[in-house]
Amino acid sequence: MSLTIRYGVPAPAAVRKGYGLVAFVSNVFFEADEGATANDAALILCRRAFGLGKSYIAVRRNQAYQLRDKDGAFLADTAEDCAQYLWNGHATDREKHVIMDCLLENIDQLVMHKPEGEDLNRKALDKYFEGEETFTHGLMDIANS
């Protein structure tokens, strides 16, 4: 099974400086090869390391309420997964806490992010990139510039 992911117009999100991270909130469109589709806003974290960029869909809007659960397990697990992926398995507790801060700082922006339909998304992207080719390679093109 393969999954195609397309991104909407990115809105910058807050992230602590000094760790090589860039954060965005964007609508994300998922499509499975069987034809099943889904779309939701997501907080996307990007990191550039050794000349290569990585992006990670940290949390989607429909999961945002779980970030503030009483035991903090979802927040800790999400931050751990994200940090380990972005730091190639070598993340320390410090990086994990930076990710946690970013997740908590951007909950409101994620929840209030304006949804886009497929047609509106395509028109907005065309306007945003002013005639460039389709934006199917993810946000790392923006994060690496």
* Relative helix content: 25-40%
Number of folding domains? 1
Cα-to-Cα separation, first versus last residue: 32 Å
Shape designation: globular
Mean pLDDT: 83
Number of helices: 5
The oligomeric status of these chains comes to single chain
Briefly say what this structure is:
Helices cover 34% and strands 29% of the residues.
Account of the 3D structure:
Residues 131-145 have low confidence and may be disordered. The protein starts with a strand and ends with a helix. The protein is globular and about 40 Å long. The chain has one domain (3-119). By secondary structure, the chain is an alpha+beta fold. The chain has helices spanning 73-86, 93-105, 107-112, 118-129, 140-143, and strands at 3-7, 11-13, 21-32, 37-49, 52-60. The relative contact order is 0.21. Strands 1, 2, 3, 4 and 5 form a 5-stranded antiparallel beta sheet that branches. Helices cover 34% and strands 29% of the residues.
